[in-house]
Amino acid sequence: MTLNRHAGDATTTSLPPRSRAGVHWGVLTVCAVAQFMVVLDVSIVNVALPQMRHDLGLSISAEQWVVNAYTLTFAGFLMLGGRAADLFGRRRAFLVGLALFTAASLFGGLAQTSTWLITARAAQGLGGAVLAPTSLSLLTSTFTGMTERRRAMGVWSATAASGAAAGVLAGGLLTDLLDWRWVLFVNVPIGLIMLVVAPRVLTESQGAQSRARLDIEGAVSITAGLALIVYGIIGTDSTSWASTQTIMALAGGAAFLIAALVIESRVAASPLVPLGIFRRRSLPAANGIAVTVGAGLFGMYFFISLYLQQVVGFSPLRTGLAILPAGTMTLAGALAAPRLVAKIGPRRQLVLGPALSAAGLLWMSLLSFGDGYWTHMFVPLALFGLGIGTTFVPMTLTATADVPPSEAGLAAGLVNTTRQVGGAVGLAVLATLAASASRADRGFGHPGQFGHSVQAVLTVGYDRAFLAAGLVLLVGAGLALLIRTPAQAVGSASTSSPASHDTAQREPALR
To answer: What are the distances in angstroms from CA 313 to CA 14, 158, 451?
Structure first.
């Protein structure tokens, strides 16, 4: 039987305090583990890419699609997933998303071709797009008191933040000790256990918008448009920008995005993104910064994983350990961000955070073949992670600073979505630049010259990618100078847990 939101809450609050606390902790555990799985799968495959390429014969563009297929479907269907939870019930949507994510992980682990693997990753992204907003919505409907909700959001957010750091380490460990397939198989036993436990601890509830219609056309148009644009950019690795294939792909992507604008503004009865929200003065700048952060974040993890294995010669496990300072400092930065933003304000922090990350990437763009890890990579990685970690909270505060409470969740959800989109499109552009630089350097080389060995040629391309990613983040820091954030946004940060403000504000948008 489907319960409404109030009935679900009443069922919980009628229990004795000790029993109610046990139920709440069960819900928190299930939701935190689900979010950990979703975030983990963004970064866990990076370290395994060289083995995937060897076993399945992946091309350079296919390597990018292993990452981007997940990211694009996740970003494109994120808000639709949250809306579906309100329409059909959060518990039901959670179980469907979890089942899809688990099945797609098994399917991907069994992959025999690149198309098989990429399709599985896209299905994982779709499952994640349902799981992420639904788990957050379940938490906010379960923890109704301000204090207990803040604590729950703190645990949920810390778990999510640690997922990216754990991903690179887990990816290296599983790839080195077992096989690359286990970076996908690892989700299967966790998912099966969750499918048994979740129905026992979650109660059904629906949001207030239970009569709204799913805007499937808008979500599909946005996702298809982005996918075609990324496909066109990645295709320039083997064809020219003026080729028929590239032009058709980019034109098709633009057509889908234009169609999405028409659907959102005129056709959809319940649009995923009401376009009027972009009239708010700070929201466009915050989303622009989110795009640059996504590009820098995805680009760094992708290229440093390849550099450490293909150029330096690290094993997958050693690569995961080598990248860990970036993930650890991201978590540290996220923990420090609320206190810092209370002292210096969101605008200054949005200049400082991307600038620190840009400094780390620009430092790494000076790498030469043969450079040591501790002298040339450890500090830049830590700088990059710290800057990224301190950026998330003020970015969300800025996005929601001058919007009414009824639109705050939508504004915060848009920041999360545009960050994923920036990561997918940015990675495609950066990979194209890296391949172009490597080809140019190879053309100037001569047989037998040490400076033009395979590793040195790859390093030239990776340096170009780090340089471009750093410059993109500097653009993000520049956008922050255009922001005029109301003072009250600063005060609200000081009472939040590291990322709980981000996630708590995002909840209405994800429904």
So the answer is: 60, 33, 17
Distances (CA, A) of 443 to 218, 269, 328, 436: 45, 56, 39, 11
430-476 pLDDT, tens digit each: 888 888 887 776 654 444 344 457 888 888 889 999 999 999 999 99
Residues 367 and 231 in one domain: no
If asked whether residues 176 and 308 sit together in one domain, one would say no
User: Would the pLDDT of 494 be above 90?
Assistant: no
Residue 431, Ramachandran bin (φ over 0: left; ψ between -120 and 50: alpha; else beta): alpha
Supply the pTM of this predicted model. 0.76
Q: Look at residues 38, 115, 33, 113 and name the one whose alpha carbon lies nearest to residue 74.
A: 38
Q: Which of the 8 DSSP states describes residue 510?
A: G
Task: With respect to residue 510, please indicate whether it lies within any of the assigned structural domains.
Answer: no
**CB 386 within 8 Å of CB 335:** no
Place of tokens 């709980």: 500
Cα 115-118-119 angle, rounded to 5 deg: 85
Check if the beta carbon of residue 89 is closer than 8 Å to that of residue 202.
no
Residues 132 and 227 grouped into a single domain: no
Structure tokens of 42? 């963004």
Q: How many whole angstroms separate alpha carbon 33 and alpha carbon 26? A: 11
Q: Give the model's pLDDT for residue 108.
A: 92
Cα–chain center distance at 149: 24
User: In whole angstroms, what is the distance from residue 247 CA to residue 355 CA?
Assistant: 35
The residue behind tokens 């500097």 is: 474
- Domain hosting residue 243, numbered range: 216-269
How far is residue 202 from each of residues 27, 30, 169, 196, 505, measured CA to CA in Å? 6, 9, 31, 11, 22
The helix-helix angle for 405-444 and 216-235 (nearest 10°) equals 20
pLDDT recorded at residue 450: 41
